[in-house]
Amino acid sequence: MTIKRRITADERLLDVAHREEWKQKAAWRVMKIQAEFVEGFDTLEAAELGNAVGVYGSARTGVDGDEYKLGIELGRKLGEAGFSVITGGGPGAMEAANRGAADAGVKSVGLGIELPFEQGINPYVDIQLDFHYFFVRKVMFLKYSCGFCALPGGYGTMDELFESLTLVQTEKVGKFPIALIGVDYWGGLVEWLRSAMVREGKISPDDVNLLLVTDDLDEAVEHMKRGRE
Ligand SMILES: CC(C)=CCNc1ncnc2c1ncn2[C@@H]1O[C@H](COP(=O)(O)O)[C@@H](O)[C@H]1O
Fold first, then answer.
1. Domain membership flag for residue 2
2. What total of structural domains would you count in the chain?
3. What is the CATH number of the domain that holds 197?
4. Which of 101, 148, 156, 204 has the fewest CB atoms within 10 Å, i.e. the most exposed one?
5. Ligand 1: does its nearest atom lie under 6 Å from the Cβ of 153?
6. Is 94 in the pocket of ligand 1 (CB under 6 A)?
7. Is 197 buried (19+), middle (13-18) or exposed (0-12) by CB count in 10 A?
């Protein structure tokens, strides 16, 4: 099946090719962005998520592999520990974590995003939001989670991870545990943080300790409990 490419709201806002259109419709777009914030806050306040953990991870994780099983297990263990689970609502690792949360009977949230090639929200989400703008969606992740777990992922996962890390490092958010699940996958990145960023003085040695890197899901869940109210 071929999926038709569509122009997204983010693209219209950011792409220089749409500058003329932006000039004419700037005020309307700002209102649309505002409406997206209002809708997000309203829905997630009404959802009464309690303590929730954001789970990031690849949209491309296959349903038949060990990584997908790991995602289900993580969602389930977080749920059993009393956390709601928030993901991007897409396929792969997001779907796995939502599935585990649904198995555990806790609230399973999907912050969906409009993309040029729409994939749709995964079926294990019970509270669904659909965003046009990545930046609005990121605020929701951060406002309604008390910690994050990152399963192996690509650029999208990195973006979400480093946004969270920057906010913790700059003390914009307080206690906010972050766990990277998968020593083999993440070990090289953490090694590079030490050998390049710390060595060149771009971050302090303690900044690396803002990340827990583990294969042990129980350890990750215990770590998340440090972010609870
Ligand atoms: C196969 C494909 C491109 C599907 C896209 N469908 C998606 N649906 C929802 N969130 C997404 C999607 N792609 C990326 N993201 C966001 O970026 C992260 C995954 O990006 P990546 O696959 O690691 O880089 C997720 O945590 C999610 O919040």
1. no
2. 1
3. 3.40.50.450
4. 204
5. yes
6. yes
7. middle
- Return d(Cα 47, Cα 203) in angstroms, integer: 38
Indicate the top mutation candidate among 56, 67, 113 to test ligand 1's pocket, ranked by most ligand atoms within 8 A of CB: 113
The pLDDT profile of the chain, 229 residues, written as one tens digit per residue, is 566 777 777 777 777 777 777 677 788 889 999 999 999 999 999 999 999 999 999 999 999 999 999 999 999 999 999 999 999 999 999 999 999 999 999 999 999 998 887 678 999 999 999 999 999 999 999 999 999 999 999 999 999 999 999 999 998 888 899 999 999 999 999 999 999 999 999 999 999 999 999 999 999 999 999 998 7
Strands laid side by side in the 127-131 sheet:
127-131, 108-113, 84-87, 52-56, 147-150, 178-181, 211-214
* Residue 153 alpha carbon to ligand 1 centre in Å: 9
Question: What number is the ipTM of this complex?
Answer: 0.90
Is 155 part of a structural domain of the chain? yes
Query: Looking at ligand 1, which residue's alpha carbon is closest to its atom 27?
Result: 88
